[in-house]
């Protein structure tokens, strides 16, 4: 059908994270509407959106209160900015709310539009701070392999995945990567989780010493890595990493873009794993992605050098036209109210524990190498051989196959290589978790037969 939506999509759209041929072969999945944890395509087929879109839609897909909040703000003040001395009520209310919600003392909020922009902003704040403090040599930021922090030039540099770097000649200067805490994949034979964490902290310290501690400004990490394959930190990891950072007075940026607002069963991933960040970066579940918005929370250590006019390096020349957009901020505020009123964090903890338990029941399946996760974020790692952890043909082939079968069976998940991720809306019930598990079992059995 030359004029079908599918054909027109292929003709006119360049999609993110695919190439045109692959998109054509797979065929577009055109989603028309959503309700609760479900979405429906243009043929009327219904799916459980077990990824909440892109790790985003905490409150579900058809929340009238968010629609009403947007409409109300749109009629009152559809746009304003926050450059220099201008402000507006949604910006003030949301900043106050976020500072109050922070699990560690934070003094200021700064608003951006995407996770990538927020991480770029964090880097610029840190570089500005070093200059303001008279330490211009202190510009290096350490990120991790498998970490995901976005796709702009600077945030893609922080991202530690080959596709985001190799073909773009990244990373830029001053960005370094250390090992990822992927215990199942990267621990040495016989190494316990604690030993693995100790080794990673030692490797980090070696890197800092080799570079010169006086040149290292910050470390960035997701409390639980998302796009890198849902990598849950092994025992002792964050405690040991933070001890090294403290020793050399290196700032910590917690990228809470996925973990923030309940995903791990607490309001922030930093609480679950005892992180004491100087900067927190948040987006996605901040507004359930109904509208684009992201935010940074910074503590006094970061804020004071930025605020001090006597630093003689000029104003903090940074900000976005739509940063803290009033309609997006109003939606975010209402979204946070809903998360609190409906105790979605409690639901993530309780139904999350159930989801983790049900997924772990699949560990005995021939194709399942590992099940990992916490709260309402998880991945199963698919293998051809459990003992050697070898993939089935090309790495990622089994993940893509199973993901496709699962979609046919009515569940949208996402495969990152052979890791199949589950990150459903925080409103999910136990019965709906059972639906996912049942479709997943069927899909794994079908994959085994191919
Ligand atoms: N940080 C993390 C942890 C993410 O998962 C993402 C996106 O998936 C980003 C940053 C980038 O966010 P955006 O796609 O809004 O630029």
Keywords:
alpha/beta; 15 strands; Aspartate Aminotransferase, domain 2; binds pyridoxal-5'-phosphate; 450 residues; globular; Aspartate Aminotransferase, domain 1; 4-stranded mixed beta sheet; 7-stranded mixed beta sheet
Quick structural summary:
This protein is 41% helix and 15% strand. By secondary structure, the chain is of the alpha/beta class. Helix 5 (89-101) runs parallel beside helix 14, helix 6 (115-132) crosses helix 13 and helix 15 packs parallel to helix 17 (430-449).
Question: Could you explain the architecture of this structure?
Answer:
The protein has 450 residues and is of the alpha/beta class. Helix content is 41%, strand content 15%. It has two domains: 36-59 and 343-449, Aspartate Aminotransferase, domain 1, CATH 3.90.1150; 67-341, Aspartate Aminotransferase, domain 2 (3-Layer(aba) Sandwich), CATH 3.40.640.10. A hairpin with a 4-residue loop joins strand 2 (38-41) and strand 3 (46-49). The longest helix has 20 residues, at 430-449. The relative contact order is 0.14. The structure holds pyridoxal-5'-phosphate. Pyridoxal-5'-phosphate (PLP) binds at residues 54, 114-116, 119, 148-150, 222, 226-227, 255, 257-258, 283.
